[in-house]
């Protein structure tokens, strides 16, 4: 899962390591001395950094306090900072060290179908946390890169996250969840998987087929319902989707069923029809959650559709299917940041158990894992 993206992120780590290598071997003594007017004396740049640290750092600090300019601008480490960093056995990452690696990272993210604004946000955040950052001797450049990337990725991926199971547990029953998304992305399969996921946690569910538009939709969802032993509420093709889901809610109330899982048609004649359908369901049923389903492998298209459906129907979260077949990871990285709504589940295969609660922290750790 997301192996292509993983390789690319590890490429960034190598790039930064390479571009900071020279400095690690050759301290910036000449440059520092020239620029600072011998504030840092020769022995500060010798191998005995520990001894230098006490005497020279104190001197440098005094000078810096007397002259605020010496502390440098926000972006560039000042001579003082660099000298101090070296004297204390640290290395500072500078703009020029990052220029090429960040460019390569941006290209890699875009190639991985990460949405442009998301890629920019990741880059800004990595740049900000690494620039002028002093690297302790005990900390490798790789570790510094990893921590910057980790925070940047979690920040965009975890947008809007909430505790799905907690919300189901606390909500008044029955909980109604409506699924939207275009045909063929795994919507019906995801409903079946979620029904199993809920059953594993002690919640009963009934399926309601609000896709009254497409021929064969009833048969398709009935197959899942039969296999799982769930009840299915359906009307004839051409019926009113809101009425089907409403019947599902009534059935759940009468039979003490915890959750109603309502399918909907993925595409109607126009997006106005689609919006009208979802608005009517909202009005008639007032679902507790509307979840958008799309396939991770669709990359940028999935991100664009998530935005469209959110504009039309105010989704509460997303399920990304076929993550098992997706190498790029772009949709998984981008959907939450672009819509402001979290990814809640990943579909990871064709079996009913192949659904995983989405955990941004876990995903980022696996992306940055060097194994
Ligand atoms: N590899 C993989 N295949 C999946 C996953 N989820 C669904 N599929 C497959 O994708 C195909 C389409 O799934 P459906 O559930 O029929 O898609 P749908 O969106 O409901 O399609 P419509 O009913 O036409 O709207 C099926 O062959 C599923 O088995 C997944 O997470 N991984």
From TrEMBL:
PROSITE patterns linked: SRP54
SUPFAM superfamilies membership: Domain of the SRP/SRP receptor G-proteins (SSF47364), P-loop containing nucleoside triphosphate hydrolases (SSF52540)
Ranges for region Disordered: 1-80
Keywords: Cell membrane, Cytoplasm, GTP-binding, Hydrolase, Membrane, Nucleotide-binding, Receptor
Main localization (coarse): membrane
Domain of life where this protein originates: Archaea
UniProt domain SRP54-type proteins GTP-binding: residue ranges: 342-355
Enzyme class, UniProt record, top EC level: hydrolase
Presence of the UniProt keyword DNA repair in the record: no
Residues noted as binding GTP in the record, renumbered to the chain: 181-188, 263-267, 321-324
Name of this chain's protein: Signal recognition particle receptor FtsY
Organism: Halorubrum trapanicum
Lineage: Archaea, Methanobacteriati, Methanobacteriota, Stenosarchaea group, Halobacteria
